Amino acid sequence: MLDLKRQYQPLHQELLEALGQVLETQQFILGREVAAFEQAAAAQLSVAHAIGCSSGTDALWLALASAEVGPGQAVITTPFSFFASVSSILRAGATPVLADIDPATFNLSPAAVENVLASERGAGVQAILPVHLYGQCADWTAFARLARENGLKLVEDAAQAWGAEWHGAKAGGLSDAAAFSFYPTKNLSAAGDAGMVATNSDAVAERARMLRQHGMRRRYYHDELGWNTRMDGFQGAVLGVKLKYIATWTEARRAVAARYTSLFTQAGLAEAGPYPAKGLVLPSETPGARHIWHQYVIRAPRRDSLREFLAARKIGSEIYYPVPLHLQEALKNLGYKAGDFPEAERAAQEVLALPIFPELREDEQQTVVRAIAEFLS
Question: Which domains does the chain have, with CATH numbers?
Answer without folding.
Answer: 4-242 (3.40.640.10), 246-376 (3.90.1150.10)
